[in-house]
Amino acid sequence: MKKVVVIGGGLSGLSAARAVKAAAEKKGVELEVTLLEKDDLPGGKIRSVREAGYLCESGPNGFLDNKPSTMALTREMGIEGLLYKSDDNARKRFIFTGGKLEQLPEDPISFIMSEVLSIRGKLRLAADFFLPQGEPGKDETVAEFVRRRIGEEALDKLIDPMSAGIYAGDPAVMSIIACFPKVKMIEDQFGGLLKGMLAMQKMAKARGQQGPQSAGPGGTLWSYDEGAGVLPMLLAKELGESVKTGVEATALERKGSGWTVLTDGGEYEADEVVLATPAYAASKLLAPHSEEASRLMGNIPYVKMAVVCLGYDNGDIPHPLDGFGFLIPKKEGRKILGSLWSSSIFPNRAPEGKALFTLMMGGARSPELATLPEDELLATCRAEMAATLGATKEPEFVKVARWDKAIPQYLVGHLDRVKVIEREIAALGGLTLGGNAYYGIGINDCTTRAELIGPMVADKLTNTGGA
Ligand SMILES: Cc1cc2nc3c(=O)[nH]c(=O)nc-3n(C[C@H](O)[C@H](O)[C@H](O)COP(=O)(O)OP(=O)(O)OC[C@H]3O[C@@H](n4cnc5c(N)ncnc54)[C@H](O)[C@@H]3O)c2cc1C
Questions:
Q1: Atom 4, ligand 1: residue with shortest CA distance
Q2: For a tag site, which of 152, 154, 409, 443 has the least CB within 10 Å?
């Protein structure tokens, strides 16, 4: 009987454990999978809690269907009946600019036509059509790339808030290739962003598809009846006894071609270990075995965040809330990164007649705000609700979640460093890399990686004298 230990019980670890089991079964490998999670509950950053009729998400609110893996996993688990599709209105996203909310166009071409940019900004964006192509495959910061192609104003009003909304990150240091691979690919393939968007629109039309092509994430947002937390909760339920919560992996010791995983509650032997913790935790485990991998993993920064759920009477909000919510460019000088209109996105997120908001604070932009004492944090949120939505009444419901290390940041050169980490790990043997610190930070990235890890681990087990 072969043994696999997965370290980390967030979505990456849980979906990887399931995929490893399924792939081994397909190959006829007899396998025991153990998943170690240091917290008392599985799920990692995905936490959905219902209180006073409000459903609060401390982490993700859902996943997009622009990549198939999470939807496929949902179907394989037989829980598609629990899926909630976001309201059609949630396609409408806003930015808070010039002191007011403006609807954000879905693609750069309608961005030129919109009110968001000044005439000067529009002309600069349109100049992308005539500008020479950058060096294909060359990494640079998101800010450098955007400034070079579509100018400073588009950076400030479109890409800066988008970087904060997805990564809570700073475009001045984020890697264009690792953070927005599709955008860089459009330049590499078509010579420019507008040329690429037009060509893609033409190709889509030829295939009989309508509508603008998005250089952004695109797709429709989905969640589950009781929030994003349903997925890890049901994965853990399905994995049953394999999941050991409240068990922290404290060290890895070599044992033949495999490993012994030392924990605060005993030892686990493994032919193969899947590392699905955040990078800083995997860095500690690898320190005695690969100085280089450990150093590179330990250097992947994470940003702090506070996530504040506020519930109001509908009548206290002087806005129709007919959309997803809004993001705020740094130049506006506001204290929140943005606000999701959670009860407008999915049904059953708030009691009848009430509205639920999820405010994001901190990130690379203002880490100090994520650690404000609770009274100051809430006073700041109330002031931001008044300034952005004119909501001057007190919220009737409040819930705060804080993450000291919320989201890994992919800095310029990230993918080259991941290659070195992978090389070091491959040289050690008996290890597989998972978690959202390397190949994508979102839910879909975790489940896509799990789809790869399953067969990869099953192959390794059979190639080392397996079943
Ligand atoms: C505020 C916020 C909003 C987000 N919004 C979205 C969104 O809308 N859409 C989207 O797609 N993604 C979103 N994300 C990202 C999404 O949450 C992540 O992609 C996903 O949850 C990462 O899962 P993971 O398993 O890789 O990491 P984690 O969830 O961090 O899980 C790692 C686990 O490893 C455990 N661990 C660490 N060290 C050890 C050890 N030594 N031994 C045992 N266990 C250990 C930890 O306790 C943790 O449970 C958001 C994230 C945050 C923080």
A1: 60
A2: 152
